[in-house]
Amino acid sequence: METSSGSGKKYSGSSRSKFLKGSCQLLEIYTSEGCSPCPPADAWISSLKNSEDLWKKVALLSFHVDYWDFTRWKDKFAHKTHGARQRYYANLWHSSTVYTPGIV
C-alpha cells in the first residue's frame, strides 16, 4: 500500500510506518447545537483540550452543520459550507447519508 505525504512523495512498507510515526492525524468533527446527541460529543472533544497529544499527534477541527437548523434551535456556529464538506466526504465513500455527531 502506498501513501502520499501531501508533498508528492510516496511511501510504502516500512518507510510508510516511519512517515506515519511522526505525523499528526487530523480529525474533523461534524456537530450541531440542534442535534440532541451532539452536546456529549462536543464535551468529549472539549475534554481533549489539555491533552499532551493535541497538536502533536492529533489536530481537531469542529464543523457545525446547518442541516439541523430546521428545528427550533438554530446553531449560531453553523455554516452551509460545513454540511457541504461533510456531504463531499460521504460522496467519496459512496454513502447517501450524513449524520451528527460525525467524525472524519
UniProtKB/TrEMBL annotation:
This is DUF1223 domain-containing protein. It comes from Leptospira ognonensis.
